[in-house]
Amino acid sequence: MAGPLTAATQVPAHRARNTLQALALLAGMAALLGLLGGLLGGAVGAVWALALTGVLLALSPRIAPALLLRLYGGQPIHAAQAPGLVQAVDVLAARAGLPRPPALFLVPSPLLNAFTVGTPRTAAVALTAGLLRGLPTREVVAVLAHEIAHIRNHDMLVMGLADLMSRLTALLSNVGVLLVLLNLPLVLLGQATISWGAVALLLLAPTFGMLLQLALSRTREYDADAGAVALTGDPEGLMHALAHLEQRQGRWLEHLLLPGRRLPDPSLLRSHPPTQARIERLRALAQTLQPAPVPDWDPLHHLGPTVLRRPRWRPGGLWY
To answer: Are the CB atoms for 89 and 101 separated by under 8 Å?
Structure first.
């Protein structure tokens, strides 16, 4: 892999822009939550709504990444099994400034996928057998860099916070609508008044919160792409990996999880940016960088035969 970047002047600019967008979106979600709290309980209600978010985030259960990945059938990948793969993770983690390299797990699935769980100190990266067998080495490195960029950016915490605020927004909205319904007889009898603007806000708040959360998710993906380029110096590798992932598994998986995704639906309703948009951003970065050498190791070296399981429904609505 290439050494640390020296000429990638556009990478910091991309990351700074994405970070500002993420902060603005989180602020928007917090403002929406506080507004709902204010509608229900005044200034004190707004403060309590935001304070409750912090308390619930701090008290939320922490599942050990290794235990969580074993629920997916994941098995640890050790250095003796795949020395090149583990070495690549060590190098990328060191460049990212992580306190420790993330643990690697092999998930016996034919899908081409990778995902990350945990914090920078406890993180684990899961790679499916389908991804390791289906992508060239250069693209596997790019995918690893993308996941390590997520770890460095604390994206699991950020998206967890966004999800919590979105859920609390929906909860307060339901409480507010219930209170409106309980007081509707008094309104009809002229013994109470109601602000229809407030009612509209109560009804639309969950939708606004969901759209902000989806926009934040897209921003974090763009930032992880830029972070991967900063770690590898190889935007072409990630471009090819994204194109292969879209081409080789997109259609049937999208019909299963997101029916109608390939229809011209608004990009606001996507949790990930369109692949072509990500590739265009990476292409712009590629014009400023020297091509990185391709690693010469085999990512499946010594992993042995892998029994592939057919995807099935999992608790939470995931297919894996």
So the answer is: yes
Burial of residue 258, with CB atoms counted within 10 A of its CB: 0-12 exposed, 13-18 middle, 19 or more buried: middle
The whole-number pLDDT of residue 4 equals: 41
Count CB neighbours of 75 within 10 A.
Answer: 15
Query: Which one is catalytic: 147, 221, 236, 280?
Result: 147
- Region of residue 97 (left: phi > 0; alpha: psi -120 to 50; beta: else): left
Q: Under DSSP, is residue 127 helix (H, G, I), strand (E, B) or coil? A: strand
Classify strands 103-107 and 124-128 as parallel, antiparallel or unpaired.
Answer: parallel
The residue extents of the domains of the chain are 10-286
Query: Phi/psi of residue 127, each to 5°?
Result: -120, 135
**In whole angstroms, what separates CA 179 from the centre of its chain?**
35
For residue 295, the 8-state DSSP code is: P
pLDDT score recorded for residue 30: 92
State the DSSP H helix or E strand holding residue 10, giving kind and residue range, or none if neither: helix 10-59
Cα separation, 142 vs 161, in Å, equals 27
User: What are the per-10-residue average pLDDT scores of the chain (320 residues)?
Assistant: 45 75 89 91 89 83 78 86 89 93 91 89 91 90 94 91 92 91 81 82 92 91 91 90 81 47 54 87 79 54 46 50
Residues 34 and 170: beta-carbon distance below 8 Å: no
147 part of the active site: yes
- Residue 186: what pLDDT? 80
- What order of strands is seen across the sheet that includes strand 75-76? 75-76, 103-107, 124-128, 114-117
